[in-house]
Each structure stands twice: as structure tokens, then as C-alpha cells.
Amino acid sequence: MLNNIINSHISQSINSHISQSINTDISQRNNEINKLYYLNEERKKINKEKYKTITIDKKDYFFKTTYSLKNLAHNIDNNIHSNKQFINSNIKKINNVYKISYKNSQTSGFGDFIRGCYYLLEFCDALNVFLDFHIYDNNIKYYLKYFSLKPKINEKIANNICKFTKINASFTNIKGIINYNIDNNNADFINYINNQNIYLNNVFINTINFPSHLISQSHINYMKKILEPTDLFKIEISNLMKKISLNKNDFVTYHIRLGDDYIENNFELIKNYKLKKIINRLEIDKDKNILLISDSVLIKKILTKKYSKIKTLETKAIHTCQTNDIDKIKDTLFDFYLMSNSSNIISFSIYPHGSGFSKWCAITYEIPYICYALL
Questions:
Q1: Residue 222 backbone dihedrals phi, psi, to 5 degrees
Q2: Residue 333 pLDDT > 80, yes or no?
């Protein structure tokens, strides 16, 4: 009798273990099937994409217009096997919000916001989550059609937004040219997302993470729409171009970022070797029409005196994270949209990360771009 009871118990344990093992195996296989199905759909999209050529300093660089299947699969694997595996299933939409300050941090520049939007377009596509963008209290919104017509988000929500402060990039300086490499921080970002307040299946965040170098054409087209100026501002931009004799695609933009110390016109701060480096590059384009954008009024004076074909705006440059004065914001956006009409953008920066303002303008409007270090 005792043997029967023991045998029965062993049999039940074995059956239970086998059943659990089968269920686990089925679950794993279903996950693999779903993953393969998703990757197959992405493969179809990728096969439809074309290649394009971007010319920079007489060299051709071929960029695929979407992220590679290999990288996509690697990122998905990282998300699946990380401790925080997936975004909370209650989150259906991520909202990237640009505002003057956040609960845990000050804001970043306008170029940084654009970069974060590109990152989220890739991230949300990969995880099949909806996405939207908002400008809350920064006066930039009054010059952009998409944001000027958009209802303002709730004040309570806005006041509780925490910025994601971990950056997923390291910066390179190869032969004096600034670029960046991606450092995967998806697990940290998912953890951040999962810890935000959820409002009717929405989370409201801010990130300035970097997208991959292989940005899809569909994302570029989307950002062009998001950044479209209002009809009135378009007229003002057009009139300004006529006023300073600039025609679309018929001028080169030089964007010189010398930093906040240079804004005050302190001549002692402009080192001779930095000025010489800028002039040496300008010599290549001296016979072309040139638009000069800089945060230094002094450098504008020096270079416009030396080169007759340089056009510039007589405005005091500001960084959009440092002021919300509507007139200064407007002047900065004039710089941005004039630059968006140029044939090439040549940037100089004293910062190791270069300049997001000109970099993401170039990416969005598909303009050949290079950034030289002034370190």
C-alpha cells in the first residue's frame, strides 16, 4: 500500500514537472516565433528602402536609410534578456516634452530636443509603442505649425516630468572632425520609462538620447513635418532670405560655436590658432555665397570684414536653454531655418560633442555636414 502511494506521488511529480517543462518550452517557442515574425516584417521594410549619397568635402559617404536588421535584432535581444525586459504593458504612448525646466533638471537646447525625437522614433518603432511630441512653455512653439495648434498638456503632468539624464553616446575626434558612437542604454531607458507616472496609458518624458547613424527616410520626413514653420513665419523667413540675398541651395552655412564666454565679445578669448583654423577652411569657399551663424558677435565682425560674400544676421545669439525671450527665440529660429536652405553646413565647435543645433538641422533637411573641433 505504501509503495502504491509513493509510486503515485512520484508519478504526479514527474507529470507535473513534464507539464511545466512543456509549458515553458511552448512559451519560449512562442516568444521566438513572435520575434521572428517582427524581424521578418522589418526585413520587408528594409528591402524597400533605397540608398542615398551624401557628399562631404568631395568624398562620398553611403548611408543606408534605416537601421540594420542585425542591430535591430541585437537591441531586441538586449531588451528581452534585460532585468526590466519590457515596457509596462499599460503604457501605450510615450510623449516627449520640451519645456523650460524639468522636475530633476534644466532643459537642453533645441537641437538636443530634435535629437531625442529621432531616438524615440527608432525606439518606439522597435517596441511598437505610439509616440507624440509636445512643446509646453517654450516660446519656440509659436513659430512651429504642429506645436502652435496643439493643445497644451495638463499643468500637473508638465510639472511632474523628469528628464532622462543618461546619455547613450561617446564623442570622437578623428583628425579634428567631431562625431559620436552609440553606447546602448536601452535597459536604463526602459527602467526610466517604467518608473514614470501613467496617465490614461500615456507617459510624459524628456530624453536627448542619440539615434543610430542610420536614420530612416520616413523618420526624416516625419521630423520635417514636425518642424514645419507656421505660414506667417515661412513668409518672414522668405523675406529675410531676399533681404540678405540668399537663394535656396545656393549658399554654404558656416556655424561657429565658440561657447558662452565668447558671446560677450571678449577679444582675448579668441585664440589665434582657432581663428586661423576657421579662416583656413573659409578660404575653400571664399568665392561662394556664405551664411555665417555664430554665438560671437565679434567673430562675425572679423569675418564679414575679411570676406565680402559672407552674409550674417545682426542679432545677438542665444542658447535656447538659457532664455525664453520671444524675440531672441525668433532670431535663433531665423538662423535655424536659413541654415536649412543651404547647400552645405560647415560647423566649428569648442565643445567635444560638437553642435546639436547645426547637426540635427543638417540631418533633418538632408544637407551635407561636417563639424570641426576647436579644442
A1: -65, -45
A2: yes
List, in order, residues 6 or more apart from 186 with CB less than 8 Å away. 75, 78, 79, 82, 123
The conformational region for residue 311 under phi > 0 = left, psi -120 to 50 = alpha, else beta, is beta
The DSSP-derived string for 127-159 is: HT-EEEEEE-S-GGGGGBHHHHTSPPPPHHHHH
Of 296, 304, 258, whose CA–CA distance to 277 is shortest? 258
Contacts of 16 (CB under 8 A, 6+ apart): none
Provide the pLDDT confidence category of residue 183 given band limits of 50, 70 and 90: very high
Average pLDDT, integer, range 54-82: 37
Q: What is the reported pTM?
A: 0.77
Which grid cell is 242? 531676399
Paired residues of 180 in beta bridges:
171
Provide the 8-state DSSP code for 199.
Answer: B
* pLDDT band with cut points at 50, 70 and 90 for residue 176: very high
* Phi (first) and psi of residue 179, to 5 degrees: -150, -170
For residue 135, report the phi and psi dihedrals to the nearest 5 degrees. Answer: -115, 120
Q: Which domains does the chain have, with CATH numbers?
A: 50-226 (no CATH), 231-373 (3.40.50.11350)
Strands in the chain per DSSP E: 51-56, 59-64, 93-98, 130-135, 163-164, 169-174, 177-182, 202-207, 252-257, 290-294, 310-312, 344-349, 369-373
Closest C-alpha among 374, 375, 339 to residue 359: 339
